[in-house]
Amino acid sequence: MPEFDSTFADAGDHDLIEGFARVVAVEGGRVWLEPEQTASCGTCSSVGLCSIGKDALTASKLAARRFQLPGDLGLRMGERVVVGIRDDALVKGAMTAYGVPLLTLLAGGIAGQELGGGDNMAVLGAVAGLVFGLIVSRLLANSLSARGVLTPRFLRRTFDPPTDADCHMDHG
Amino acid sequence: MQHYLLLIISAALVSNVVLMRFLGLCSFMGVTTRVDTALGMGASTTFCITISAMIDWGVDRFLLEPYELGYLRTVAFILVIAAAVQFTEAVVRKVSPTMFQLLGIYLPLITTNCAVLGVNLLMVEGRMNFIESTVFALASSLGYSLVMVLFAGLRERIALAQVPRLFAGPPIGFITASLLALAFMGFSGMSTN
Q1: How many domains does chain A have?
Q2: SS3 sequence, B6-24?
Q3: Class of residue A170 by CB neighbours under 10 A (exposed 0-12, middle 13-18, buried 19+)
Q4: Structural domain range at position A144
Q5: In chain B, which residues have pLDDT < 70?
Q6: Cβ proximity of A116 and A122 under 8 Å
């Protein structure tokens, strides 16, 4: 049985969405990690021509997605680890970031149309609803972040083969 | 109220943007290997389609139509979609940096998603008012998200099934998509737009 020092106290209750990350900085016992280059689509042979491939390869984009792991995990610079979040975190995140503003936008637009009776009032109502929804969304996101729902957790170290390992090509 | 209900059913199910109008097929095949990625992509696309439809309605009504610039519609809409995606990215980053790490990866893919442009052009073709346009865009994108999640769930199960070697991979994916489209044809006749 391999050593499993995950920071997920309740990992057994939920499925986890896993991803790879590399340690890029260690500051006072806390580690900063950078997710590995991934594209949101499966990519195709035209990946070099579209914005997806270019975006996935941009170092600044990866740097913008750096995150910190809580607790002293004893990780070293350059170490590759598996991190994860609970599968319901994505649903909660999507509902908070997108669902709430869309609902308030629609409610504001309908209210504007019903009160004013025209498109101009509906537009004003929708914009006001969107702004209100974004404020509510931010408050909810802060609440989720404070509870650590959206924070990726350390699951395990990955096995890196030694650099001087032989690669046997003589099979078959 | 009944009018809006019919509009929602029509846009989301009867004239589904993926299975009936064949828009957004790239992301439909590319991002549906897992339910969680399909869900993230669907949610991001829903938000961007609705926001861009709102702006495009204004651009068309107050700029393109009065000055008879209809021939610039496609170019103008593409510009608005790109701006809406950038706006969404900035908003998500501002609302919560951790949420941006979670959902931000899907946003660049939306810029090149033809479903976004398609919904906006259909909205103009339908000569709708502002609320109708917004409801149509929201319902169309919810239909897109529904199909994405359904298809991702099917593909997750297919990945565990024993598929004949010649059908493994994309072929069985296309066959499944066609069966899903046939299933959605069952909604036709409920409402038309």
Answers
A1: 1
A2: HHHHHHHHHCCCCCCCCCC
A3: exposed
A4: 11-157
A5: 104-105, 191-193
A6: yes
The answer, for A129 touching chain B at a CB cutoff of 8 Å, is no
Alpha helices in B60-169 (DSSP H): 73-95, 97-103, 107-111, 114-125, 130-160
- pTM (2 d.p.): 0.80
Amino acid A171: pLDDT: 42
Does residue A162 sit within a domain? Answer: no
Q: What is the pLDDT of residue A82?
A: 83
Q: Do B102 and A138 touch (CB under 8 A)?
A: no
51-70 of A, contacting B, C-beta below 8 A: 51-52, 55, 64-65, 67
* Pairwise CA distance, residues B1 & B128, whole Å: 15
Residue A87 sits at the chain B interface (C-beta within 8 Å)? yes
- Does any domain span residue A166? no
Which tops the pLDDT comparison, A153 or A29? A153
Cβ burial, residue A8 (10 Å; 0-12/13-18/19+) = middle
Which chain B residues are closer than 8 Å to A152 by Cβ? 101
Please indicate, yes or no, if residue A167 is contained in any of the structural domains.
Answer: no
Q: Can you read off the two tokens belonging to residue B49?
A: 């389609």
Distance from CA of A21 to the nearest CA of B (A): 12
**Sign (positive/negative) of CA torsion A53, A59, A64, A65?**
positive
User: What's the pLDDT score for residue B142?
Assistant: 95
CA nearest B105 in A: which residue? A40
Task: Decide if A172 is inside a domain.
Answer: no
A119-146 vs A100-116: helix crossing angle, rounded to 10: 150
Locate the chain A residue with the closest alpha carbon to B100.
Answer: A65
Residue A1 pLDDT: 39
Residue A43 φ/ψ region, left for φ over 0, alpha for ψ in the -120 to 50 degree band, beta for the rest = left
Q: Which residues pair with A81 in a beta bridge?
A: A21, A157
Q: Whole-number mean pLDDT of chain B? A: 88
Residues of B in contact with A122 (CB under 8 A): 129-131
In this predicted model, what pLDDT tens digit does every residue of B167-184 receive, in sequence order? 988 899 999 999 999 999
Better pLDDT: A130 or A17: A130
ipTM: 0.84
* A30 beta partners: A27
What was the pLDDT predicted at B36?
A: 82
